[in-house]
Design goal:
Blueprint (H helix, E strand, L loop, with lengths): L3 H37 L7 H19 L2 H23 L6 H19 L13 E3 L7 H6 L1 E3 L1 H18 L1 H11 L1 H6 L4 H25 L13 H11 L4 H23 L6 H5 L1 H13 L19
Antiparallel strand pairs: 1-2
Length: about 300
């Protein structure tokens, strides 16, 4: 017979892990969907970390100044769009490397956010409202686990919409054509450079929204150590998901569960090796990249014009 105490502890741990996964996965979800759009057009943006951090700062600042977290979300998305436009324009210049521009943008966005965000470290801005899906239960652990942020269902719906759009709409097919074969797209009369710039800007908008979630919901403050490399991990997530938005959503939940492992164990009184468990997302990133990037596999499903593909 099973031990009721062990079953209860396992159930509590799984609930804590579920709740944590839904919180932690949201930035991964938005940033990976944005990068999926960008890479589908044949461009890679390693500046997502800078966009994420700047989005967190700008969203928090606007929420604090206006009293509206939704205006903060919009401001973060607009700032992300500007960074995406900057990346797209620079990468459109002759002999400019996507990777180098992305690294420069990451450093620029992060440094600018740290500089402009100094006055925002102490003030408390209005937070995003939660969705209490566990109100039907009398168990506080169930209510806590099902207390999700409003951006999570929006992101999940967006993943399915993007998947449909890329497969079934003219705009999606044109975007894929530009990412797979720029010469063929030009021969058919499509403006390759403006399409890529627009895709990078759209990706920047979503990355900015993901950053605003960090400061306006979880952890719910502005500080200089807010992102912890989630923007860079999202690039690995997109490769693992094979440039498929729905798979990006599933992979984001997986990364979120890895990120929630340490806090979930701590909530159950397991503190030994806490910092080791907190490294789970980084270990998962390395493992997935090692599994996905073996010879012959990295190109499976990759847009033909992408920097990691054949040009």
């Amino acid at each position: 017979m099973s031990d009721p105490a062990s079953d209860f502890a396992l159930g509590s741990l799984l609930l804590a892990l579920l709740g944590g996964a839904m919180r932690v996965s949201t930035p991964f979800l938005f940033v990976s969907l944005g990068e999926c759009i960008t890479e589908t057009a044949g461009r890679i943006n390693l500046g997502l970390e800078g966009i994420l951090v700047f989005g967190a700062m700008s969203g928090y600042g606007v929420s604090y100044l206006t009293g509206s977290p939704w205006l903060g979300i919009l401001a973060a998305g607009c700032c992300g769009t500007l960074f995406g436009l900057l990346h797209g324009v620079l990468c459109s210049l002759p002999k400019v490397n996507d990777i180098a521009v992305g690294i420069a943008l990451m450093l620029f966005g992060t440094g600018l956010a740290f500089f402009l965000g100094k006055p925002l470290i102490q003030p408390q801005a209005p937070m995003l409202p939660p969705l209490n899906l566990g109100g039907w239960s009398d168990d506080p652990q169930v209510r806590s686990a099902l207390r999700i942020n409003v951006l999570l269902p929006i992101g999940l719906v967006l993943a399915f919409v993007l998947q449909w759009a890329l497969v079934s709409t003219r705009a999606g097919l044109v975007l894929r054509l530009v990412g797979d074969n720029a010469a063929a797209a030009r021969a058919l009369g499509y403006p390759v450079v403006p399409i890529r710039i627009a895709a990078t800007a759209a990706g920047g908008f979503l990355a900015g929204v993901g950053g605003a979630f960090l400061s306006l919901y979880y952890p719910g403050s502005w500080n200089e150590g807010l992102s912890s490399g989630q923007g860079l991990m999202a690039v690995a997530l997109v490769i693992f998901a094979r440039w498929n938005p729905v798979r990006c959503a599933l992979a984001a939940l997986l990364f979120g569960a890895a990120g929630a492992l340490g806090p979930a164990l701590q909530s159950q009184g397991i503190t030994s090796g806490y910092y080791l468990f907190n490294a789970a997302p980084y270990v998962l990133t390395l493992a997935l990249m090692a599994a996905s990037c073996t010879p012959g596999r990295i190109l499976a499903g990759a847009p033909g014009e992408l920097s990691l593909g054949n040009r």
